[in-house]
Design a protein that fits this description.
The protein contains 5 helices and 11 strands, in the order E-E-E-E-H-H-E-E-E-E-H-E-E-H-H-E. It has about 220 residues and is α+β, with helices and mostly antiparallel strands. Strand 1 and strand 2 form a beta hairpin. Helix 1 packs antiparallel against helix 2.
Length: about 220
Protein backbone atom coordinates (compact mmCIF):
# COMPACT_ATOMS: atom_id res chain seq x y z
CA UNK A 1 0.00 0.00 0.00
CA UNK A 2 1.31 3.47 -0.89
CA UNK A 3 1.93 5.85 1.99
CA UNK A 4 0.09 8.74 0.42
CA UNK A 5 -2.92 10.98 0.82
CA UNK A 6 -5.31 11.37 -2.11
CA UNK A 7 -8.16 13.84 -2.31
CA UNK A 8 -10.26 15.65 -4.90
CA UNK A 9 -12.26 18.84 -5.27
CA UNK A 10 -14.24 20.50 -8.06
CA UNK A 11 -11.25 20.97 -10.39
CA UNK A 12 -8.38 19.15 -8.71
CA UNK A 13 -7.06 15.78 -7.67
CA UNK A 14 -4.17 15.74 -5.25
CA UNK A 15 -1.56 13.04 -4.57
CA UNK A 16 0.51 13.84 -1.48
CA UNK A 17 3.33 11.45 -0.63
CA UNK A 18 3.31 11.29 3.16
CA UNK A 19 6.98 10.30 3.41
CA UNK A 20 7.86 13.66 1.88
CA UNK A 21 6.07 15.83 4.41
CA UNK A 22 8.04 18.98 3.62
CA UNK A 23 5.74 19.54 0.62
CA UNK A 24 2.54 21.41 1.50
CA UNK A 25 -0.59 21.21 -0.68
CA UNK A 26 -3.51 23.53 0.12
CA UNK A 27 -6.58 24.64 -1.78
CA UNK A 28 -9.64 26.81 -1.28
CA UNK A 29 -12.35 26.50 -3.91
CA UNK A 30 -10.77 26.93 -7.33
CA UNK A 31 -7.35 28.16 -6.23
CA UNK A 32 -4.50 26.45 -4.46
CA UNK A 33 -0.78 26.10 -3.83
CA UNK A 34 1.85 23.38 -3.62
CA UNK A 35 4.91 24.66 -1.79
CA UNK A 36 7.91 23.84 0.35
CA UNK A 37 10.48 25.80 2.30
CA UNK A 38 14.16 25.38 1.48
CA UNK A 39 15.41 25.18 5.06
CA UNK A 40 17.81 23.17 7.21
CA UNK A 41 15.68 20.22 8.34
CA UNK A 42 12.26 18.76 7.62
CA UNK A 43 10.69 20.05 10.85
CA UNK A 44 11.56 23.70 10.28
CA UNK A 45 10.85 23.22 6.57
CA UNK A 46 7.33 22.00 7.21
CA UNK A 47 6.49 24.73 9.73
CA UNK A 48 7.81 27.49 7.48
CA UNK A 49 6.16 25.94 4.42
CA UNK A 50 2.75 25.85 6.11
CA UNK A 51 3.09 29.48 7.19
CA UNK A 52 4.07 30.61 3.69
CA UNK A 53 1.48 28.51 1.83
CA UNK A 54 -1.42 29.47 4.09
CA UNK A 55 -0.67 33.19 3.81
CA UNK A 56 -0.34 33.02 0.03
CA UNK A 57 -3.58 31.07 -0.27
CA UNK A 58 -5.41 33.54 1.95
CA UNK A 59 -4.24 36.40 -0.28
CA UNK A 60 -4.99 34.86 -3.66
CA UNK A 61 -8.33 33.38 -2.61
CA UNK A 62 -9.52 36.85 -1.58
CA UNK A 63 -8.74 38.40 -4.97
CA UNK A 64 -11.70 39.56 -7.01
CA UNK A 65 -12.24 37.93 -10.38
CA UNK A 66 -11.08 41.09 -12.16
CA UNK A 67 -7.85 41.33 -10.13
CA UNK A 68 -5.68 39.42 -12.55
CA UNK A 69 -1.91 39.30 -12.51
CA UNK A 70 -1.53 39.90 -8.76
CA UNK A 71 -0.19 36.49 -7.74
CA UNK A 72 3.51 37.13 -8.55
CA UNK A 73 3.50 40.22 -6.34
CA UNK A 74 1.78 38.26 -3.56
CA UNK A 75 4.40 35.50 -3.79
CA UNK A 76 7.31 37.93 -3.55
CA UNK A 77 5.88 39.96 -0.68
CA UNK A 78 4.69 36.97 1.35
CA UNK A 79 8.00 35.12 1.03
CA UNK A 80 9.95 38.18 2.19
CA UNK A 81 7.58 38.63 5.13
CA UNK A 82 7.68 34.99 6.26
CA UNK A 83 11.29 33.98 5.63
CA UNK A 84 13.59 34.24 8.67
CA UNK A 85 16.81 32.74 7.28
CA UNK A 86 18.80 34.91 4.82
CA UNK A 87 20.11 31.96 2.78
CA UNK A 88 16.80 30.12 2.63
CA UNK A 89 13.43 30.65 0.99
CA UNK A 90 10.49 28.98 -0.73
CA UNK A 91 9.58 27.25 -3.97
CA UNK A 92 5.98 26.82 -5.04
CA UNK A 93 3.35 26.55 -7.75
CA UNK A 94 -0.06 28.21 -7.48
CA UNK A 95 -3.22 27.86 -9.52
CA UNK A 96 -6.27 30.10 -9.74
CA UNK A 97 -9.38 29.92 -11.90
CA UNK A 98 -10.80 33.05 -13.50
CA UNK A 99 -13.98 33.18 -15.61
CA UNK A 100 -12.16 32.62 -18.91
CA UNK A 101 -8.86 30.92 -17.99
CA UNK A 102 -6.75 29.24 -15.33
CA UNK A 103 -3.52 30.91 -14.20
CA UNK A 104 -0.46 28.96 -13.05
CA UNK A 105 2.46 30.73 -11.32
CA UNK A 106 5.60 28.79 -10.47
CA UNK A 107 9.02 29.25 -8.88
CA UNK A 108 11.38 26.29 -8.50
CA UNK A 109 11.74 22.82 -9.97
CA UNK A 110 8.12 21.64 -10.23
CA UNK A 111 7.25 20.36 -13.70
CA UNK A 112 4.04 21.81 -15.19
CA UNK A 113 2.51 19.58 -17.87
CA UNK A 114 -0.58 20.36 -19.94
CA UNK A 115 -2.70 18.67 -22.56
CA UNK A 116 -5.59 19.82 -24.71
CA UNK A 117 -5.54 16.68 -26.81
CA UNK A 118 -3.87 13.29 -26.53
CA UNK A 119 -0.52 13.70 -24.74
CA UNK A 120 0.99 15.71 -21.91
CA UNK A 121 3.64 18.33 -22.72
CA UNK A 122 5.71 20.71 -20.61
CA UNK A 123 4.04 24.13 -20.32
CA UNK A 124 6.47 26.06 -18.07
CA UNK A 125 10.26 26.07 -17.97
CA UNK A 126 11.57 24.99 -14.58
CA UNK A 127 14.04 27.00 -12.49
CA UNK A 128 16.78 24.36 -12.55
CA UNK A 129 20.33 23.90 -13.76
CA UNK A 130 19.39 21.12 -16.19
CA UNK A 131 17.11 23.53 -18.04
CA UNK A 132 19.89 26.13 -18.20
CA UNK A 133 22.16 23.47 -19.71
CA UNK A 134 19.37 22.36 -22.08
CA UNK A 135 19.20 18.79 -20.77
CA UNK A 136 15.77 17.34 -21.48
CA UNK A 137 16.41 14.03 -19.72
CA UNK A 138 17.09 14.02 -15.96
CA UNK A 139 20.72 13.21 -15.25
CA UNK A 140 20.73 10.23 -12.89
CA UNK A 141 24.39 10.47 -11.88
CA UNK A 142 24.64 14.26 -11.79
CA UNK A 143 21.87 15.28 -9.42
CA UNK A 144 23.24 18.78 -9.07
CA UNK A 145 21.74 19.50 -12.49
CA UNK A 146 18.34 19.53 -10.76
CA UNK A 147 19.61 22.28 -8.45
CA UNK A 148 17.16 25.14 -7.97
CA UNK A 149 18.27 28.37 -9.64
CA UNK A 150 15.57 30.67 -8.17
CA UNK A 151 13.84 30.76 -4.79
CA UNK A 152 11.46 33.20 -3.13
CA UNK A 153 12.19 35.02 0.09
CA UNK A 154 15.63 36.60 0.12
CA UNK A 155 17.20 39.69 -1.37
CA UNK A 156 19.25 37.70 -3.88
CA UNK A 157 16.40 35.37 -4.76
CA UNK A 158 13.62 35.45 -7.30
CA UNK A 159 12.37 38.77 -8.68
CA UNK A 160 8.84 39.33 -9.88
CA UNK A 161 9.88 39.08 -13.54
CA UNK A 162 11.48 35.68 -12.88
CA UNK A 163 8.22 34.03 -11.81
CA UNK A 164 6.86 31.69 -14.48
CA UNK A 165 3.28 32.60 -15.38
CA UNK A 166 1.08 30.48 -17.63
CA UNK A 167 -2.55 31.09 -18.56
CA UNK A 168 -4.83 28.87 -20.61
CA UNK A 169 -8.58 28.36 -21.05
CA UNK A 170 -9.80 25.56 -18.78
CA UNK A 171 -11.85 23.53 -21.25
CA UNK A 172 -13.48 20.13 -20.90
CA UNK A 173 -10.46 18.39 -22.44
CA UNK A 174 -7.79 20.46 -20.66
CA UNK A 175 -5.66 18.70 -18.06
CA UNK A 176 -2.80 20.32 -16.14
CA UNK A 177 -0.37 18.36 -13.98
CA UNK A 178 1.96 19.86 -11.38
CA UNK A 179 4.64 17.22 -10.74
CA UNK A 180 7.24 17.45 -7.96
CA UNK A 181 9.52 14.60 -9.10
CA UNK A 182 11.30 15.37 -12.37
CA UNK A 183 11.80 11.69 -13.22
CA UNK A 184 8.04 11.11 -12.99
CA UNK A 185 7.35 14.07 -15.29
CA UNK A 186 9.96 12.80 -17.73
CA UNK A 187 8.39 9.33 -17.80
CA UNK A 188 4.94 10.84 -18.43
CA UNK A 189 6.28 12.74 -21.44
CA UNK A 190 8.54 9.98 -22.78
CA UNK A 191 5.87 7.29 -22.54
CA UNK A 192 3.24 9.63 -24.03
CA UNK A 193 0.78 9.04 -21.22
CA UNK A 194 -2.70 10.21 -22.19
CA UNK A 195 -4.64 12.62 -19.95
CA UNK A 196 -7.20 9.86 -19.33
CA UNK A 197 -4.52 7.52 -17.94
CA UNK A 198 -2.49 10.12 -16.06
CA UNK A 199 -3.98 9.55 -12.62
CA UNK A 200 -3.51 5.78 -12.69
CA UNK A 201 0.00 6.14 -14.11
CA UNK A 202 1.05 8.37 -11.20
CA UNK A 203 -0.57 6.05 -8.69
CA UNK A 204 1.24 2.99 -10.09
CA UNK A 205 4.51 4.63 -11.08
CA UNK A 206 7.51 2.34 -10.55
CA UNK A 207 9.93 4.67 -8.83
CA UNK A 208 13.69 4.38 -9.42
CA UNK A 209 15.67 3.63 -6.24
CA UNK A 210 15.60 6.64 -3.96
CA UNK A 211 12.94 8.37 -6.05
CA UNK A 212 9.59 7.71 -4.40
CA UNK A 213 7.90 11.09 -4.41
CA UNK A 214 4.69 11.07 -6.45
CA UNK A 215 3.34 14.27 -4.90
CA UNK A 216 1.30 15.82 -7.72
CA UNK A 217 -1.68 18.06 -8.44
CA UNK A 218 -3.97 17.27 -11.40
CA UNK A 219 -6.29 20.05 -12.58
CA UNK A 220 -9.23 19.59 -14.95
CA UNK A 221 -12.97 20.20 -15.23
Amino acid sequence: MHNKLERTNSIGKFFVEMNYDTWIVMNVGECGIIARAVYGNKWTERSAGISFASRVLQEISSLEKDERGQTPRILINTALAVNVLPESGFICTTWQCFPDFIEICSVGTNSILMSNSSIMQEAITRHSVDHLLNYDEPQRDLRWRNTITHILGNENGCHIEDIRVFRTPLLQDTKIAIIVERRLAYDIIKQKISPQNLSSFIDNWSCPPGRKNRTSVLLSL
